[in-house]
Structure prediction request, 539 residues.
Amino acid sequence: MTTAAAITCRITPEGYVRQLSSVHTGDFRRLFLLAPVPSVERVIELRNLSKRYGPTVAVDGLSFTVKPGQVTGFLGPNGAGKSTTMRMMLDLIRPTGGQVLIDGARYREMPHPLRRVGALLEARSVHGGRSVYHHLKWLAQTNGIAKSRVRSVLEQVGLAEVAGRRAKALSLGMGQRLGIAAALLGDPPILLFDEPVNGLDPAGVLWIRNLMKALAAQGRTVFVASHLMSEMALTADHLIVVGRGRLLADTSMAGFIAESGSDSLEEAFLQLTAGAVEYQGRGDR
Amino acid sequence: MIAAEWTKILTVRSTVWTLLSTVVISAGLAYLLALNFRNSFAGMSADRQAAFDPLFATFLPITLGQLPLVIFGALTVTSEYATGTMLASLAATPNRARFYAAKVLSTALMAAGVTVVTVPVMFVAAQAGLGPLRTSLGADGALEAMAGACLYLPLMCTFAMGVATLLRSTALTLGILLPLLFLGSQGLGNIPRVMTVTQYLPDQTAWVVMHLAGPQDEARWTRDYGAWTGMSLLLLWTLAALLAGYAILRRRDA
Prediction:
């Protein structure tokens, strides 16, 4: 930690300007000045993970691994169990069967989990009456993260100027940036995003897409749940597709489209998940 | 961990206001109620004048002054559920026993800090209002009552936290706790027969030490327990509420 802090200080004057400009251009290559902690090959490993709510099976024996250095898309129709799976990765929901291992350990056994795993959950998890700065401050305090990180992530996501504003006064896009700042706070080598572009304008969508690619290019593990095919086609290198809580595909993006004999990810996805959607209108295929 | 919980408490207006109003309500009411006792003293019968207990007049405002602290204790937990902050909290501290211990300890310490300001200020304000009827710390039972009040307020706050963790909702928690505490202050604990049960309600158990339960040497006021046994009963209530809250927190999905 001491070495890392020293490096940051030495390159700050120049790095600061570059960080600010990169926020606007969407060029994230120089955004993160520190190399992430190297991860072992299988970073996230799900072993026969299941979750039942009474008679309803939300996640049904899911097994896959997520590797570092690429963006892994987690696709599935609404109600396929994506959010439940992500929350089980963070031990927010207790599985009824199986387990999730992150670098070989369970999430709840990590002494400072925010330094290993950063997550943007779909649901808002911010008190509207608390300021942007203070929200990140208490999060940093729980995991022994230096207070200087709060300022630096706020600059990274372009929220430095509204640091004193209350969270409920943020626009949807700014709120999403705050969620991402919280995920990046501990400079974690593993990042989980649940529907990160929901409700964002095109500039916001582009910003998040470039951010995820930049994070993966640094060797971090990036795992993104989404049901937006066109967006995933532009972002993800690898795909994990689920339907009704079951694994339908675990393959590279190119391989997925080629295998299905379709022209686009959307078409391939619809073919694969045709039997697994919850509700189908009469006009649908 | 505790520093993080304190940051949470002090960076939201609602919790800061409840803490401030604890001091203001207790001290303000202490002065006003004491003035009222002083002015009506001349009109009292000789019996009632003889039985007048300045400590009763001094500690009576605590029956209302406890309410903001109870609300504070409940809000530290239920506002996390209402705003979704609980997801961030549990992701940051996935060990739920550790998270709960830090939350309870930090909130109880904050309540204790407010209490050690509130109780002496309330005591001084009440004596100023009582004028010639006033008592002093040297009086029989006065120091004990002070100590009792200093334990009572943080314990009630912690009790409310346990109930809030069990119920998870602000409306539900306060909907149960506030009427219970209001009824207590309306003298429910002093009605014969009803009293055999109500004297064991959590807030009632600490009333003997604070001279709020009436003179204990009179048969109609006498409770089945003494001053400090009563305080231990409140401690048991608090531990039971905390354990019930933990049983739910540990098992339920966030």
Notes: Residues 1-25 of chain A have pLDDT under 50 and may be disordered.
